[in-house]
């Protein structure tokens, strides 16, 4: 005899027992995915959520900066102090969780913009949905809905300007000094954020709520705005110092912090810690992705963002 489980009260979709079962199944699936992908990553993801372990691993490394650096495509921000030394930038990231204060050489910025115009990007990073950015309106009409984001998948690796940034001696020195290990390039992304109506689920999927990323015992991520970004263009936001000061309960849940409402995190850690990064096209900044942060949704104009992540260990898998 077939049983209709939906008639069993504790197995209806709204029942707490059903929700618990659903969450446990999802958790098991996630653990199995990590285990089969790279067991080292699974172990790291359990351990690296604790600040004491992260700092201990970093201390075990050794990195001696070279006396002289090769040519860099990184400049000081116009009108600001000269370019800070990599050691000073690393110290400021260690203190605050992030650093804002350099920019791309204008010719590199122009090359990246030309690349973005002449290379197809992919709606919601879906390889089956390519379009040229200049055809976005038409593409959205065909799709029947506004787009929240689009990325270039791995195409940016073929861009000469990107390769100059990826191998830039100044950026590598900043990364290595912060990690206290020779920095290993993990991955990069070139992506658009568009002004579009969005739900909380959309925001969680696209990292537009406060969260942390744990892709190694320590990683560091560089960002470059390739379009002007003000309050209306979806600026990046850091919660200063939360890479070194975080409630133990929040350390224990690791990336699960993304499930805590933004306002609750702001109340707990203090509104004065919220730092919004705005600036002209070319502005660069860098942070420890363990520091609570978020992108925000553009409301006025689109934003083109380049990001590169460096770590200590090359794993076969990663979180996004
Ligand atoms: Fe993130």
What are the key terms here?
single chain, 320 residues, alpha+beta, Jelly Rolls, nine-stranded antiparallel sheet, three-stranded antiparallel sheet, 11 helices, 18% strand, globular
Strands, helices and their partners?
Blueprint: H1 16-37, H2 39-47, H3 51-59, E1 74-76, H4 86-96, E2 98-104, H5 106-118, E3 121-123, E4 130-131, H6 136-143, E5 149-151, H7 160-166, H8 169-179, E6 184-193, H9 200-205, E7 219-225, E8 236-239, H10 248-252, H11 262-269, E9 274-277, E10 283-287, E11 293-294, E12 303-311
Antiparallel strand pairs: 1-2, 2-10, 3-4, 3-5, 5-6, 6-12, 7-10, 7-12, 8-9, 8-11
The protein binds fe (ii) ion (FE2).
Description:
With 320 residues, the protein is α+β, with helices and mostly antiparallel strands. The chain contains eleven helices and twelve strands. 34% of the residues lie in helices and 18% in strands. The radius of gyration is 21 Å and the shape is globular. It has one domain: Sandwich (Jelly Rolls). Residues 207, 211, 213, 289, 293 line the site of fe (ii) ion.
Ligand inventory reads:
fe (ii) ion
- What's the total number of strands? 12
One letter per element, helices H and strands E, the order comes to HHHEHEHEEHEHHEHEEHHEEEE
Mean pLDDT: 92
Cα gyration radius (Å): 21 Å
The CATH class name reads Mainly Beta
Report the β-strand fraction as a percent range: 15-25%
Q: What is the strand arrangement across the widest sheet?
A: 1-2-10-7-12-6-5-3-4
Give the assembly state of these chains.
Answer: single chain
Q: Would you give the CATH topology?
A: Jelly Rolls
SSE class: alpha+beta
- How does the overall form come out from the CA principal axes? globular
Q: What is the distance, rounded to the nearest whole angstrom, between the alpha carbons of the first and last residues?
A: 45 Å
CATH level-4 homologous superfamily:
q2cbj1_9rhob like domain
How many domain modules? 1
Low-pLDDT runs of 5+ residues are none
């Amino acid at each position: 005899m077939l049983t209709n489980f939906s008639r069993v009260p504790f197995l209806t979709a709204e029942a707490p027992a059903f929700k618990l079962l659903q969450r446990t199944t999802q958790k098991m699936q996630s653990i199995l995915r990590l285990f089969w992908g790279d067991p080292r990553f699974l172990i790291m993801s359990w351990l690296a959520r604790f600040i004491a372990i992260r700092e201990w691993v970093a201390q075990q490394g050794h990195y001696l900066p070279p006396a002289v650096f090769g040519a860099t495509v990184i400049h000081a921000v116009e009108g600001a102090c000269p370019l800070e030394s990599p050691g000073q930038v690393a110290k400021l990231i260690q203190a605050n969780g992030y650093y804002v204060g350099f920019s791309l050489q204008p010719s590199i910025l122009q090359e990246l913009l030309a690349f973005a115009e002449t290379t197809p990007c992919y709606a919601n990073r879906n390889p089956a949905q390519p379009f040229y950015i200049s055809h976005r309106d038409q593409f959205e009409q065909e799709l029947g809905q506004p787009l929240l984001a689009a990325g270039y998948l791995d195409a940016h690796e073929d861009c000469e300007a990107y390769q100059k940034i990826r191998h830039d001696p100044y950026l590598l020195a900043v990364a290595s000094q912060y990690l206290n290990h020779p920095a290993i390039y993990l991955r990069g992304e070139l992506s658009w954020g568009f002004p579009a109506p969005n739900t909380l689920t959309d925001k969680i999927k696209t990292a537009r709520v406060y969260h942390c990323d744990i892709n190694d015992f320590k990683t560091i991520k560089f960002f470059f705005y390739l379009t002007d970004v003000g309050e209306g263009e979806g600026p990046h936001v850091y919660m200063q110092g939360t890479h070194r000061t975080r409630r133990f309960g929040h350390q224990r849940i690791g990336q699960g912090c993304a499930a805590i409402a933004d306002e609750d995190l702001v109340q707990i850690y203090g509104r004065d810690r919220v730092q919004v990064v705005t600036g002209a096209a070319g502005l660069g900044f860098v942070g420890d992705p363990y520091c609570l942060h978020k992108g925000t949704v553009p409301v006025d104009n689109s934003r083109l963002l380049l990001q590169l992540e460096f770590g200590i260990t090359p794993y076969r898998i990663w979180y996004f």
